[in-house]
Amino acid sequence: MAEEELIYDFSTIEKRWQEYWEREKIFRAEDDSEKPKYYALDMFPYPSGAGLHIGHPEGYVASDILARYKKACGFNVLHPMGWDAFGLPAEQYAIKTGTHPSVTTMENIDNFRRQIKNIGFAIDWDREINTTDPEYYQWTQWIFLKLFQRGLAYVDEKPVWWCPNLRAVLANEEVVDGKSEVGNHPVERRNLRQVVLRITAYAEKLLAGLDDLDWPDSTKRQQKAWIGRSEGAEVEFAIEGINEKLKVYTTRPDTLFGATYMVVAPEHPLLDNLVIQEKANEVKAYVEAAAKKSDLDRTDLAKDKSGVFTGSFCVNPVNGEKIPVWVADYVLISYGTGAIMAVPAHDERDHEFAEKFGIEIKRVIANPNGDETESKLPYSGPGVMVNSGEYDGMDADACKSKIITDLEAKDAGKGAVNYKLRDWIFSRQRYWGEPIPLVWVSAEDYEIAKQTEGAIKDLIPQNDVTTQKDGQLLYALPLPASELPLQLPEVENYQPSGTGESPLATISDWLEIWFDLETGKSISRDEAKPEGTTWVSASRETNTMPQWAGSCWYHLRYIDPKNPENLVDKEKEAYWGGPDFYIGGAEHAVLHLLYARFWHRFLYDEGVLANPEPYRKLFHQGLILGEDGNKMSKSVGNVVNPDVVIDAYGADSLRLFEMFLGPLEAVKPWSEKGIEGVHRFLRKVHRECLRTDKHNAKEESNKDTLKVLHESILKVTEAIEDLRFNVAISQMMILINHLQKVDSYSIDTAKALLQLLAPFAPHLAEELWGNLGGQPSIVNEPWPQARKELLVTEEITIVFQVNGKLRGQGQFPKEVEKDAVISAAKADTKVQSFLEGKEIVKEIYVPGKLVNLAVKG
RNA sequence: GCUCAGGUGGCGGAAUUGGUAGACGCGCUAGACUAAGGAUCUAGUGCCGAAAGGCGUGGGGGUUCGAGUCCCCCCUUGAGCACCA
Rounded distance, CA A798 to CA A806, Å? Predict the structure, then answer.
């Protein structure tokens, strides 16, 4: 064989097979297959202008290995790809340059697609989706309208996070430590009209549904914490001198006797009633100061407690004691009832406050460990009730429900559940997002709509959705499905208006319309008003949806990406179910993954879907750091470009190395030397498989080779199933090292190696498969089965220990008796030197493994 | 501050779940081939020690014939939460 033929020309090989796979549609997923299905899903990328970075392929390679492996195991595999393409960068680029975001987006998608195809994934490209395609987003809008119809979307003018730099409103989840998650700009509170989704209605379902999911624990915990369910009681305190009750929420009704003051939040609606004349100025000043504080100041910085006495008193419903009412900003208006009963003896925050303002601290739970000194307060552990009247001596925890029952009997409270989860602010004041398909009409026209038979009437929610505009109350009407998609209009200027309205608000011929209350059809108000009594003047909603919307349901559209009639065909959805494997970054633990569960569960409740949960098995790949151990970033200059890596080593080397770096979930640094290592391995495979002089026969006869081969089949298979791809690759290296050492091996052995390698380095495996006489494609070959009987050898090695330390070993037939092994161990010269002058007190024999002689003296 | 997950050679990491610690790869050392080697191959490579041997999985204790693995305390790194009553 000539030298040249041994060169591993990965560029040619990879190009050849990528073209072949695409041309032959090797990875097409069948909707009507008899085979069991396997659906491997990647979190689809945002196609940024920077192109693919080295982190993207990590998850994609992992899912691709599973997809190819499962295909070999006889599954009908769906491994799709698409683009989460609405978003701020394209819009900001448009603001800067005037280029339409769709132009930038398409360019970026073309680049991403090219880069992804260069890595040779087993993707069914016929199912590619794009969230900015009207054919796609009409269904995003359709789901929104369903939510609207069921009263799960409403409009509210409420304080929201406004980012002046981004000129946009952000969701709670998009604000981290008082800064925008994107760009790290400062944010502030502003009252703005917002479209809000009632995700809180799903709090319980979203919490309960977590239990059955095969997700990383940390992610489940984060979602649990975000939903933040707590159980306790709502207790009503009479206010002296006012005919109002102050309602508080507490998780510790058992500490009710220890309540020595109350606190209302500065924004509490009863505050004005509570403040007595002499305190009015002081309280007013405090409330104004609190309003000026950003949330950053209120929560993140100095936790120094502040507050002002209102001059009013409440009456404790359990013992009639008078309790002073304070106002303090450590109580949040947005949680519970915005007011608390403070129990300084058993709550850290209340304790700090009481110490500072000299308020009584009254212990009502005794520490069972006996330490009753005041210095041990606050105490929040379990214990026995004290200073609590009739409840004294009872176990505090058990007492909670008893006190709740007693309060209910007195009509002074009830058991209650609270969640930290807030409703989802769904509107964005941006251009580059899905238009929200609502129109605003007058009260009179709204009444007509409710009585007009047609496309709209039944879509109107039970509770009216209204907003104030220029002193007029307007009512929201939905567009019927027949009017979808509601497409984005062309605009001159992508800049949001500084008042917090989207640029769509400036497109008057799109905004101001004639609207038919019967059919939902509309035309611009620039045109003449059509004939007919049901045509009225209306204006469109100008907000667009957040980027999360499109990714809430994309896993469904891959199942049936071109269906013009439905979001997804029911039969196809029943066949494919949800993804069997979902991989993406851990940064989406509470954002995308919670929103998508919400929408999916809603669609399930609506009877649209057969499964309540979208992602049964979830995995987060770990970050790949730069070679210097720091996060890759342009400014540090440690970014690795996948295009450059592919040019230098090939896609197979890139794939293999990303998996060989370490455990899939671990954060791990890139290494240029490391990729040379796996590249060397692939070259070895290439060279060995082409050495026809070594392939002596079709079937393998060498016992050692058979053993190593089948051990490898077993270990690689197990490692793939366990997502431990680094271990699988190690085992293949062991196999090739063995084949390199032996004089000859069979073609079957070489082919089995290629099959194991195929999910990891598919191009090279496909190429060599052909060279060894296999028919393309190796992708369709059944996965090799390990013959475990070949792993058992006639002779076994048993190690000898003295006091647990290795001192020798011996070869024995596999059926050897215990006594024979122990005698051999004692006879071992080295073992003997450690037994000398000592007494054997115990002889341990682990069959087939080891002997341990415990000695003393 | 609270909660969780980790700490194994010079480096990335293996270890049948209580039974030979350090597989595999990188790096390093020596040698072979060579005009040359940043290619390839061979041998070696946890630490100390000439060897015998000793010591070794963040530190300290414990359980056990036997501990990287189980228990307790501490140190440390990372992630999440951060006035949620």
Answer: 11
Is residue A497 scored above 80 in pLDDT?
no
pLDDT band of A486, cuts 50, 70, 90: very high
Chain B: positions less than 7 Å from a protein CB are 3-5, 12-15, 19-21, 23-27, 39-42, 53-54, 65-67, 78-85
Q: What is the CA radius of gyration of chain A?
A: 34
Who among residues 708-747 of A has its Cβ near strand B, under 7 Å? 724, 726-727, 729-730, 733-734, 737, 740-741
Conformation bin of residue A761: beta by default, left when phi > 0, alpha when psi is -120 to 50: beta
pLDDT at A849 over 50: yes
Can you state the angle between helices A672-690 and A762-771, rounded to 10 degrees? 10
Higher pLDDT, A463 or A165: A463
Q: Which residue, among A703, A679, A695, A706, has the nearest Cα to A784 in the 3D structure? A: A706
Instruction: Check: CB of residue A248 under 8 Å from CB of residue A339.
Output: yes
Read off the amino acid at residue A369.
N
Residue burial A319-354, b: 16+ Cβ < 10 Å; e: rest = eeeebbbbbbbbbebebbbbbbbbbbbbbebbbbbb
Q: Is the pLDDT of residue A1 over 60?
A: no
Strand ranges inside A72-117, DSSP E: 76-78, 82-83
Distance A649 CA to B35 C1' (A): 28
Cα–Cα distance, A380 to A345 (Å, whole number): 8
In the 8-state DSSP scheme, what is residue A631?
A: P
Q: How far is the CA of A667 from the C1' of B75 (A)?
A: 23
Distance from residue A804 (CA) to nucleotide B71 (C1'), in Å? 21
Strand pairing report for A384-385 and A522-524: unpaired
Does nucleic acid strand B have an atom less than 7 angstroms from the CB of A404? no
- Closest-approach nucleotide to residue A802, Cα vs C1': B65
Would the Cβ of A221 be found within 7 angstroms of any atom in strand B?
yes
Which nucleotide is nearest to A342 if distance is taken from CA to C1'? B85
The one-letter amino acid code at A772 reads L
Sequence-distant (≥ 6) Cβ neighbours of residue A695 within 8 angstroms: A744, A745, A746, A747, A750, A772
A286-307, pLDDT tens digit by residue?
998 887 665 555 554 446 889 9
**pLDDT level of residue A3 (50, 70, 90 thresholds):** very low
Q: Which of A287, A281, A332 is nearest to A307 (CA)?
A: A287
Neighbours of A444 (CB within 10 A): 10
ipTM entry: 0.95
3-state percent helix, strand, coil for chain A, nearest multiple of 5: 40, 20, 40
- Averaged pLDDT for residues A603-607: 96
Exposure string of A816-844, with b = 16+ CB inside 10 Å and e = fewer, is beeeebbebbeebeebeebbeeeeeeeee
User: Does the pLDDT of residue A585 top 90, yes or no?
Assistant: yes
Q: What is the mean pLDDT of residues A693-707?
A: 85
Q: Which are the contacts of A753, defined by CB distance < 8 A and separation ≥ 6?
A: A685, A689, A709, A712, A732, A735, A736, A739
pLDDT digits (tens, 9 = 90+) for A191-201: 788 899 999 99
Judge whether residue A267 contacts strand B, using its CB and a 7 Å cut-off: no
Measured distance CA(A28)–CA(A21) in Å, rounded: 10
Find the nucleotide nearest A855 (Cα to C1′): B65
What sign for the dihedral angle of Cα A448, A454, A460, A462? positive
A590 touches strand B (CB under 7 A): yes
Q: Are A632 and A38 in contact (CB under 8 A)?
A: no
